[in-house]
Amino acid sequence: MSKYNKQRLYRTAEAAVLLGVHKDTLRRWEKEGKVRAVWMGRERRFPEEEIRRLLGESNPDAAVLYARVSGHDQKADLQRQVEALTDAYGSKFSEVVVLTDVGSGLSTNRRGLRKAMQMARERKIRAVAVTYPDRLTRFGFEYLEEYFNSFGVEVLVLNREEDRSPQQELVEDLLTIVTSFAGKLYGHRSHKVKKLKAEVKGALERLDTDNERKAAE
């Protein structure tokens, strides 16, 4: 299997824009052997490795191991994620950086995730590894994956099947949504937002208690 099968392949127009040259120039370089292309039917594709080589860029052999849980009472699960990622990928890179977050996977204000994105932009890493797709984000995983790929960073997922997250995770997600929309209506520092968030959390807790009672009957 070709090593290019696992990396992004750019169309001629896309590669030309990244390199800042005309499409005809890129085609000429390919004929002259200055850049290698992969032919797919009648169209050529340019591997990201070749693009980076021409740009004089090379991501170091380093990876981010990213773990996330929704609440502070789930620190044990956070540690299990880190251990699983270390066992799976720790020996595959010359350097690994562990980044963790405690918070909803819907939140855009996660320090660990933002750090991983910054390291990708600065081309300090070659991969980001997670145990499940929703540890990186609850929705829009493909968009984040595309973001990392655009900087030559591969997203490694230990388990592709959906993580069966605890109910607390779903509660935190709902509260994040409520807080976001309420903040747009009333302002993020408004007492109405805090009151609404407390009411929603209380209602969810009562629903959880009712469900447990019914299950026990």
From TrEMBL:
GO terms for molecular function: DNA binding; DNA strand exchange activity. Transmembrane segments: none annotated. One of its GO terms (biological process) is regulation of DNA-templated transcription. Pfam families: HTH_17, Resolvase. Residues 9-55 form the HTH merR-type domain. Residues 62-204 form the Resolvase/invertase-type recombinase catalytic domain. NCBIfam families: excise, transpos_IS607. This is DNA binding domain-containing protein, excisionase family. It comes from Desulfofundulus thermosubterraneus DSM 16057. The lineage of its organism: Bacteria, Bacillati, Bacillota, Clostridia, Eubacteriales.
